[in-house]
């Protein structure tokens, strides 16, 4: 599978997270069969590194039950605060070099990641990362950018183009740009990123979230970032729209927990799919199930779901009113 100039053994990638913040975590994902591993993000801000000390996580069941600390189940939603890798850049580069060597020997690229703060600083970090990694991901869609001053979330096309152009000029390896899902037109952001030099676009970042605990407070005691299986159709919406309208390789993210989820991302137009929360609940071993579930997928499967989609105005009237079965039992004669 080739994505924006990066060749991988399969389309199941591990996204940037606390799970990919150490050499041990990255090598565990490599050994479990990941197609690629995206290392934890860094940027120039000491505040972003310090923010990791206040990181907090709450897994929430489909029934709204907040799990005890350290407990997570497949199918749970995740509300969390997070920070960036708490390490100086030289030390981070040394760790990445070791991770890249390990991954290369096993056919698994390790990708560096930057969460945007200042574009000029991101360009300097990108140049340094490109000296040791085969590709760089620029995350401009981090939901924490709405709450934390140390990172930014860009939701306007001009801002996306300016930031990507600045980093692109400094990075001589494939550049992947991860975009937010909460914007008026995510396709316009993807178009801007591509025109500014992105080799591939990641769709979409997690959503801002908030959850009262019903005891007079709030889960986590703050706003946070939210992901759940329910986010899958929302992510697929923008993947499908971008696949239809743009000529850019797509990396799907936010909502994939099962082999069927990964296949849906591919059918909607993604060439690779980043997973994170599935590893929080099932450990790196879950990657084998995901990889096995997409084995045999060929190029013609990418975007296959879009072939039969139509705009609302082009949909023919249905043979029976679709809402009737949902309301019939509530209606009574004479009303």
Which blocks of ≥5 consecutive residues have pLDDT under 50?
none
CATH topology title:
TIM Barrel
Please report which band the strand proportion falls in: under 5%, 5-15%, 15-25%, 25-35%, 35-45% or over 45%. Answer: 15-25%
Task: Report mean pLDDT, rounded to a whole number.
Answer: 94
Keywords: Flavoprotein, FMN, Oxidoreductase, Pyrimidine biosynthesis
Cofactor: FMN
GO biological process, one term: 'de novo' UMP biosynthetic process
InterPro entries: Aldolase_TIM (IPR013785), DHO_dehydrogenase (IPR050074), Dihydroorotate_DH_1_2 (IPR012135), Dihydroorotate_DH_cat (IPR005720)
Protein topology:
Elements (H helix, E strand, L loop, with lengths): L1 E2 L2 E2 L4 E3 L8 H9 L4 E3 L7 H5 L5 E5 L16 E5 L7 H17 L4 E6 L3 H12 L5 E4 L17 H12 L6 E4 L7 H10 L4 E4 L3 E3 L14 E4 L4 H14 L4 E4 L5 H10 L3 E4 L1 H6 L3 H8 L30 H4 L8
Parallel strand pairs: 3-4, 3-14, 4-7, 7-8, 8-9, 9-10, 10-13, 13-14
Antiparallel strand pairs: 1-2, 5-6, 6-12, 11-12
Report on the structure:
The chain is globular. It has one domain: Aldolase class I (TIM Barrel, Alpha-Beta Barrel), CATH 3.20.20.70. The chain is of the alpha/beta class and about 325 residues long.
Which keywords apply here?
335 residues, alpha/beta, TIM Barrel, 8-stranded parallel barrel, 14 strands, globular, Dihydroorotate_DH_cat, Dihydroorotate dehydrogenase (NAD+) catalytic subunit, oxidoreductase, dihydroorotate dehydrogenase activity, pyrimidine biosynthesis
Question: Short summary of the structure?
Answer:
The chain has 335 residues and is α/β, with parallel strands linked by helices. The chain contains eleven helices and 14 strands.
């Amino acid at each position: 599978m080739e994505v924006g100039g990066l060749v991988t053994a399969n389309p199941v990638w591990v996204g940037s997270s606390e799970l990919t913040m150490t050499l041990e975590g990255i090598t565990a994902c490599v050994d479990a069969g990941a197609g690629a591993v995206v290392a934890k993000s860094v940027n120039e801000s000491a505040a972003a590194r310090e923010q990791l000390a206040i990181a907090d996580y709450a897994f929430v069941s489909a029934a709204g039950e907040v799990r005890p600390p350290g407990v997570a189940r497949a199918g749970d939603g995740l509300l969390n605060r997070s920070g960036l890798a708490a390490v100086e850049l030289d030390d981070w580069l040394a760790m990445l070099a070791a991770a890249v060597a390990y991954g290369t020997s096993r056919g698994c690229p390790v990708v560096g990641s930057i969460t945007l703060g200042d574009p000029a600083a991101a360009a300097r970090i990108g140049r340094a990362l490109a000296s040791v990694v085969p590709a760089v991901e620029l995350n401009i869609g981090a939901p924490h950018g709405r709450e934390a001053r140390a990172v930014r979330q860009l939701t306007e096309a001009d801002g996306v183009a300016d930031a990507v152009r600045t980093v692109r000029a400094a990075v001589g390896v494939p550049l992947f740009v991860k975009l937010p899902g909460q914007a008026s037109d995510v396709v316009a952001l993807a178009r801007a990123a591509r025109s500014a030099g992105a080799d591939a676009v990641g769709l979409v970042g997690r959503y801002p979230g908030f959850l009262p605990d019903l005891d007079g407070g709030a889960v986590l005691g703050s706003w946070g970032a939210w992901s759940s299986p329910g986010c899958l159709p929302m992510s697929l919406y923008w993947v499908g729209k971008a696949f239809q309208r743009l000529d850019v390789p797509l990396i799907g993210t936010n909502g994939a927990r099962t082999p069927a989820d990964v296949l849906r991302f591919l059918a909607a137009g993604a060439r690779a799919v980043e997973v994170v929360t599935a590893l929080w609940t099932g450990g790196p071993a879950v990657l084998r199930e995901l990889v096995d579930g997409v084995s045999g997928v060929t190029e013609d499967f990418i975007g296959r779901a879009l072939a039969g989609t139509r705009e609302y105005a082009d949909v023919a009237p249905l043979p029976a009113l679709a809402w009737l079965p949902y309301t019939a039992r509530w209606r009574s004669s004479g009303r």
